[in-house]
Amino acid sequence: MNAAVVVGVIAASVSIVGWFVSHVLNSRAERRRVRLAAQLAHVGKQLEELYGPLAVLSYEGRASFRDLLGTLGRDYVPLTELPIPQDILDLWLFWVDHDFMPRNAAVQQLVATKSHLIDGGDLPDSYRQFIDHYNSWRMSHERWKQQGIAYSWHSKTEWPSDFDRDVIKTYRDLLRRHAELIGAVARTG
Predict the structure, then answer these.
(1) H-only helix segments in the chain
(2) Degrees (nearest 5) of the Cα angle 161, 116, 107?
(3) What's the predicted TM-score (pTM) here?
(4) CA atoms 31, 32, 35, 41: torsion sign
(5) 166-179 pLDDT tens trace
(6) Distance CA 141, CA 145 (A)
(7) Rounded to whole angstroms, how far apart are CA atoms 65 and 163?
(8) Which of 27, 77, 147, 167 has the smallest set of CB atoms within 10 Å of its CB?
(9) How far apart (Å, rounded) are the C-alpha atoms in residues 88 and 77?
(10) Degrees (nearest 5) of the Cα angle 161, 139, 65?
(11) Could you give the C-alpha distances from 159 to 126, 136, 162, in angstroms and in order?
(12) What is the DSSP-derived secondary structure letter of residue 119?
C-alpha cells in the first residue's frame, strides 16, 4: 500500500476518533449542565414558594409570641391558671384573632398547596403535628366565635416544638445547596 494512502487513512481515523471523543465529552458535560440547571431551578422554587415564606412566618411568630409575653410581663401564658383573669384572656384572644390564627392559616395554606416542594419527598412529623394543632384550635375557636361554645382557649394538641426548627434548618440547607448549584452551573458553562 502506498505510504501516502496509509498516512491519509491514519489521519482520517485520528480525526474521526478525536471528533467522537470530543462529542461524547461535550454531550456528557451538557447533560450534567442541564441536570444541575434543573436542580437549581427546583431548589430556587422551593426557597421562593415554600421555605422562604415559611421561614419568614416562623421568625414573625417567634417575635410576636415574645411580644405577647412582654406585654403580659410573664415568661408564659397563664391559660391553665383558673379562673383566667379577664384582662389576660382578652389580650390572649386579641393575639389569637389578629396574629396567631392568620399566621397559622398562612402556614397551613403553604403546606397544603406547596407540599410538592417539601424537601425529602415526605411530610415531616412536625408538619403533621402543626396541621393537627392548627385544625384542632381553629375549629374550637370558630365554634366559640360563632356559637358561643367555650373551650380551653388553645389547641387540644401542643404546638410542635420541632416545627420552627425543621423549617429554619431546611431553609438554611436549601440556601447552601442553592449557592453550591449556582457555582456548579457556572463551572459547567
Answers:
(1) 3-46, 52-72, 86-95, 101-113, 125-147, 163-188
(2) 40
(3) 0.81
(4) negative
(5) 999 999 999 999 99
(6) 6
(7) 15
(8) 147
(9) 8
(10) 40
(11) 9, 11, 9
(12) T
